[in-house]
Structure formats: structure tokens, C-alpha cells
Specification:
The protein contains four helices and ten strands. The protein has 196 residues and is of the alpha+beta class. The protein has a four-stranded mixed beta sheet with strand order 1-2-4-3, covered by helices on one side.
């Protein structure tokens, strides 16, 4: 049975509808109003083999902050819901992803306790219409909304586009690994008996 979730968020700043299938084929339909952000979410879905649909109406006349951060919140909620009780999941995942000049490391623990560490300094302030500082806010929002320990570190890179894309793809691959089932795990991978 596929692990699916739907999540919505409606505030004065954003309206977001999102569906996620952790056991998908990498299909996506994304419309956030920020072209480069759409590209990053499409890359996340494709390389993690997640089916993802996202529709966002945000206050882009102000800036992209609310759109990007709130999308992270809603995606985190969907990840948490789709994982359910986490029975049988590997819990840990990591990936070292090269993309031209960029080399990104991502490590995840689906422990139920949020923690976020991000080391990446972008050479440019914007990639298309996306402020690069918002990439941190996106991943931070996912970590705290989903209750996951998330580390992302850029080991090398000169081109902001490559660095951002490497981050999203590394996150996708690490999450795919952490969320994968292992038949040896009969309950949850924790001495506490819970990953909440």
C-alpha cells in the first residue's frame, strides 16, 4: 500500500494544497509562482521517486518568503503523515550528491525530534526569482514540521544554481533511503519503541 498524504494551509499570506506519495514514480505537478522553486520541487520529486502535487497562491507582490517557507511547512506535514507510525522504515538516510562544481551532503534521521543544520553560502543572492536565503528557510520548515533531524552541508561549489539543485536532490535521495522499508524491522528502529 502506498504511503500518501494530503495537506493544506490557508492564511492571509498563502493558500497551499499539496499531495505526496512516498512510494511513487517521481511524477510531479508544481505551481508555486516562483519558477526556480518549481524546478527544485520537481527535482526533489523526480530523484526521490515521490509523486508530488503542489499548488500555491502566495503574496509574491511582497516577496517569496511566505510562499517558500509555508510550502516547507506543508510538505513537512505531508511527509510526517505519510510516514505514519514509521513501522519498518530504515529511519536513517544519507547521500553525497555531485552536480558539476557542487557537492552536497545530506543526512536524515526520522526520529520525531526536529533539528536542522545547514552549511551553504551561495555566491549570488537570487537564482531566477528565488532568493537564495529562502532555501535555508524551506528546509528548516520541513525539519520542524515533519519532526526530522536534517543536516545539509555544501562541501564545494561555485555556481548557485548547481549548489541549490544539489541540496534538493541530496535531500530527496536521503529521504528516500530513510523512508524505505526493511523487512528485518518488525516495529520501529528505536530502543524506546517509538519514533514520535
Amino acid at each position: 500500500m502506498d504511503r500518501c498524504a494530503a495537506a493544506e494551509r490557508k492564511t492571509k499570506e498563502t493558500e497551499i494544497c499539496l499531495t505526496l506519495n512516498l512510494d511513487g514514480m517521481g511524477k510531479s505537478k508544481i505551481d508555486t509562482g516562483i519558477g526556480f522553486f518549481d524546478h527544485m520541487l520537481e527535482s526533489f520529486a523526480r530523484h526521490g521517486f515521490f509523486d508530488l502535487e503542489v499548488k500555491v497562491k502566495g503574496d509574491l507582490h511582497v516577496d517569496g518568503h511566505h510562499t517558500v517557507e509555508d510550502t516547507g511547512i506543508v510538505l513537512g506535514q505531508a511527509i510526517k503523515e505519510a510516514l505514519g507510525g514509521k513501522t519498518g522504515v530504515k529511519r536513517y538516510g544519507s547521500f553525497l550528491l555531485p552536480m558539476d562544481d557542487a557537492l552536497a551532503l545530506c543526512a536524515i534521521d526520522l526520529c520525531g525530534r526536529p533539528y536542522f543544520h545547514y552549511e551553504c553560502s551561495y555566491p549570488s543572492e537570487k537564482i531566477g526569482d528565488l532568493d537564495t536565503e529562502l532555501i535555508h528557510e524551506f528546509f528548516y520548515a520541513i525539519s520542524y514540521s515533519a519532526g526530522i533531524n536534517l543536516h545539509i552541508k555544501m562541501l564545494s561549489g561555485r555556481n548557485s544554481h548547481h549548489m541549490a539543485e544539489a541540496s534538493f536532490k541530496a535531500f530527496a535521495k536521503a529521504l528516500d533511503e530513510a523512508a524505505a522499508k526493511d523487512e528485518r524491522i518488525k516495529d520501529v528502529l528505536s530502543t524506546k519503541g517509538s519514533l514520535a
